[in-house]
Amino acid sequence: MNSVSYAENSTQKLENSLSITEASKADSIQSPPSENLSDINFKQEGYTAADSIDSFESNPTTIDDFSTKDIGSQANATNGTSGPALSLLEACQLAISNHPLVESSRSSRMESEADYGIAKSVYMPRIDLNAQVGPSHNLDTDTTKYGEGSVSVTQTLFDFGGLQDGVASAKLKADSAKLRLARTNEDIAALAVNSYFTILQAQELLNVQNDALDFYNQLLDTFWERFNAGISSKADAAKVEVSLRATQSQLTVQNQQLKTAKLLLENIIRQTVHQVETNVGLLKIDITQSLDESYASALENNVSLRAFTADIHSQEKVVSVKDSEYLPSIGYRLQAKNEMQKIDGYKATLDAQVTLDWNLFNGFATDERVKKEQAVLRRMVATKHATELEIKNILSDAFNAYNSSVKEFELAKEAYDGSVYLMGLYLSEFDLGIRTLLDLITAREGQTSAAVREVNARFARIRSTLNIILEEGRLASILGLKIEE
Questions:
Q1: What is the rounded CA–CA span in Å between residue 295 and residue 236?
Q2: CA–CA separation, 16 vs 22, rounded Å?
């Protein structure tokens, strides 16, 4: 009994809802739509199938505020304030200039450059000044002096290459720090590019859902006309309205994804985004080389690998410095000294000496230092090889994704074109009583699904391209971005 009452209440609520919808449709429609489904336009301006995988809009994408009061078609998401369109290059520049990781990497570069400056000081003599004022009594000679001063100059002239290798090591470390700063700039730029493309992708998917919503609105209007004319039942209109509400739900979700993509880009560049340019050259770049050619290019130009190479060469110099500790170092020492004595008065002297420093035994500490630096060197080499393997895996995945996305686009386009043809056929056959409403809804869902696949395939291709050119070290040149080193 309770289940029957619940069913009756649900039926009554549905009829009331449909009555309200019917009344609102009657009030809002100035000229009633045709009762024939073949007159429905199911290819709206909201989404147009791409001619090729390189088909992207050339007009700026405006990001407006979404009001929950409007359950109809949604143009875009968030922030209705108008503003200039943000280009991809501007987004990358803002991201690099404002990101804390770039500042951290820049500080590391400055630290390495300072270490290099310190290392170069070994080529210059060291000058020390020592002075004392006040009485000082020598008990052995029973003399008193009231002040003394000295100036000494010392310098190591030769230590079998240790000096040069130490300076060269510091210079290579500074070069590595510059390259790591450049790589940080590239990574942040790639992050901004990816977020930028996420906005474009979310907008195109929003257009797909808007297109589906327009179709269901037309279909619902037509079925109300058919119901008023006694051709179709109220249940048919209810079925269409269920699909309409489901599409509105998808539209809301997609709009939220667009808002999230926008906020992500704003967090990266630390600036409000109102519009984004869609005429981006990076969207249409083709990958013409093979995987092996791309990997060979990455081995030569990848910024991270170049930084690893500089670190390895620097560590080789460190090992040479430690090896030179087995040998003596030769230098000189000059000292000018003066004293004021109680009896003899003012005295001065100038000493010149050649120095030889040679540590003959220190408990095998030099051996252990050499072993330590050699172990560090082997670790660096192994890390570089591991990075090379990682880059090869990234490129392999990117090439597979690139090729599969091209194939997926072709299949999705065929499915979309087929679903459009099928929809036109079904609408005509429905008027003849051959097709059912379920056939129409299924065909429309197939058209929407194929459109979503088209969009996702195009952006999967461009993201694969982004990964490839990033690992090849070509991102900055392609974007026209000046990378700080």
A1: 59
A2: 10
Please tell me whether residue 347 adopts helix, strand or coil conformation.
strand
Q: Are 34 and 430 a contacting pair, CB within 8 Å?
A: no
pLDDT exceeds cutoff 80 at 197: yes
pLDDT given for residue 51 in this prediction: 67
Give the DSSP letter string of 281-312: GGGG----S-HHHHHHHHHHH-HHHHHHHHHH
| Res. 209 pLDDT band, cuts 50 70 90 | very high
Looking at the DSSP assignment, which residues form a beta bridge with residue 143?
A: 138
The set of residues, in sequence order, having a beta carbon less than 8 Å from that of 448 and lying 6+ positions away, is 208, 209, 211, 212
Q: If you average pLDDT over residues 6-31, what whole number do you get?
A: 39
Neighbours of 159 (CB within 10 A): 20
Residue 13 pLDDT more than 50? no
What value, to the nearest 5°, has the Cα angle with vertex 124 and ends 118 and 125?
A: 120
Classify strands 275-276 and 85-86 as parallel, antiparallel or unpaired. Answer: parallel
Partners of 180 in the beta sheet? none
Distance, in Å, from the CA atom of 301 to the CA atom of 351, rounded to the nearest integer, reads 56
Contact 282, 479 (CB under 8 A): yes
Q: 67: which DSSP letter?
A: P
Report the DSSP beta bridge partners of residue 133: 147
User: Burial, 50: exposed, middle or buried (Cβ in 10 Å; 0-12, 13-18, 19+)?
Assistant: buried
Q: How many CA atoms lie within 13 A of 174 on its CB side?
A: 17
| Residue showing tokens 């906005």 | 199
Strand pairing report for 143-158 and 329-341: antiparallel
pLDDT digits (tens, 9 = 90+) for 306-337: 999 999 999 999 999 999 989 999 999 999 98
How far apart CA 293 and CA 300 sit, in angstroms, is: 11
Cα–Cα nearest to 278, from 470, 452, 62:
62
Contact between 280 and 458 (Cβ < 8 Å): no
Confidence of residue 426 (pLDDT cuts 50, 70, 90): confident
Secondary structure tally for the chain: helices H, strands E: 10, 7
In this structure, are residues 332 and 383 in contact, taking their beta carbons and an 8 Å threshold?
Answer: no
Architecture of domain 32-123+164-326+363-479: Up-down Bundle (1.20)
Structure tokens belonging to residue 414? 């065929």
On the question of pLDDT at 79 being above 50, the answer is no
Q: Rounded to an integer, what distance in angstroms lies between the CA atom of residue 473 and that of residue 478?
A: 10
Read off the pLDDT of residues 213-223 as tens digits, 9 standing for 90 and up.
Answer: 998 998 888 88
Domain ranges within the chain, ordered by starting residue: 32-123+164-326+363-479
Please answer whether residues 325 and 366 qualify as being in contact, where contact means their C-beta atoms are separated by less than 8 angstroms: yes
Task: Tell me the C-alpha distance between 176 and 315, whole Å.
Answer: 12
